Amino acid sequence: MNKEDVRVFNTLTGKKEAFLPLEPPLVKMYACGPTTYNFIHLGNARPLVVFDTVRRYLEYLGYEVVYVQNFTDVDDKIMQRAQEEEMSPLELAEKYIAEYFVDAAALNVRRATVHPRVSENMEEIIAFVNGLVQKGYAYEVAGDVFFEVSKFKEYGKLSKRTLDDLWAGARIDVDERKKHPGDFALWKQAKPGEISWTSPWGEGRPGWHIECSTMSTKYLGPSFDIHAGGLDLIFPHHENEIAQSEALHDAPMAKYWLHNGFITINQEKMSKSRGNFFLLREILQKYSPQVVRFYLLSTHYRSPLDFAEEKLAAAEKGLERLQTAYRLLQETQGEKEGREQVAPEVWSKFSEDLAVFEQRFQEAMNDDFNTALALAVLFDLARALNSLHTDLLGKTVNSQGKLLLEKAEKKYGELAGILGLELAKTDFTNDSATDSQLVNGLLKILIQVRQAARNNKDYVTADLIRDELKKLGIVLEDTPQGVRWKYS
Hints:
Layout: E1 7-10, E2 15-18, E3 26-31, H1 42-60, E4 64-69, H2 76-85, H3 89-106, H4 122-134, E5 138-141, E6 144-147, H5 163-169, E7 184-189, E8 197-199, E9 202-206, H6 208-220, E10 224-230, H7 234-249, E11 254-260, E12 263-265, E13 268-269, H8 280-284, H9 289-297, E14 305-306, H10 309-334, E15 340-341, H11 344-366, H12 371-392, E16 395-396, H13 399-418, H14 436-455, H15 459-471, E17 474-479, E18 482-487
Helix pairs in contact: 2-3, 4-6, 6-7, 9-10, 10-12, 10-13, 11-12, 11-13, 14-15
């Protein structure tokens, strides 16, 4: 396993580059979080899962990842929604931050090292804006403070646009007070009734872009390794972050810029403004969170992902295949005595194959975190495990074999875990999580009782056990190698 083999597509340079952190083995990573005025939709969920997976893989490689994901809890949309729900903006934001954590936990998205909020970093934001004013990059007009884009000579380097291009094609509000139409707000004068903070320019609140620049600087420093977010954030949000941060600090902001593609519906971007979005909560009423996570990782993160029910159904079947292979692997370890010994070369070849599967998985993830290809490797591994299970039926597994099977179970689970997938499936659990070994043991007893009933030609009892298990979502399959079970 070689860390230097990782290559990432850097939006800033437009090409894949070797991933070489600034201070190895430390990796500093910032991802733009949600604006907290509603439940997250499926499009919001994609970057959460994608960059959680990137973090997991980097940690698997041995990096120490400091991961910062913010909450935008001061925003026009929040204030509007707060009026509708008759609560204060910060109370509304607190409500949806709590709901965010519920959804993120369901998707097996780990909490960031830090989840800063705009409202808790106002002193630092004001100091950042004031620093830009002092350096001549920003100017005040009647309580509003604007960043002067023409002063930052590299403006447009992320989005590959010039100022003339931006003004010619952009939808920018005409404000005659600005020196250039592309100048953007760092600080906004408060309107009557709006939430506000005291600043050198009067009562007001920050602009959107300055918030992320300030919070990333506070927790990661002026320069860090990875800045991540959705494709729609390249311009103007990330472009403006670069201008602000690099103007103040005279240093590169982030070394690598990673952007995930859109989730689309009928080839159109899923978004709240278009009204063509599905709340994650709605989707989780029909599909398990693990299925949704599998679906979100089934396509390379930079590619568009079109939403379709059949794709979620396919993800459900795919995840079940991986989980069934894992369960059969556990069952294989239970095989002790049989008619013949397993040939030593079987274990030798399987050990070699296992190493090859891990290498292929790493190669997939090293290539710009190609989760689609990594999943394909897991399917190949699952097929190999299923074949091994069949070959070992009725045979004696010696101590060498048991150790290798235990290693295979650990490695299979570890590789799936990098993608945030859980192979020991127990859907019918309570909040305290039923022990999967207990579930497997009880099912084994029921299968044995059913088989005894069939041997005694008591088909009424055998069918009753089969039918009642089916009601619980467990399907029994009678095969030449014996009875197998799976989740429906």
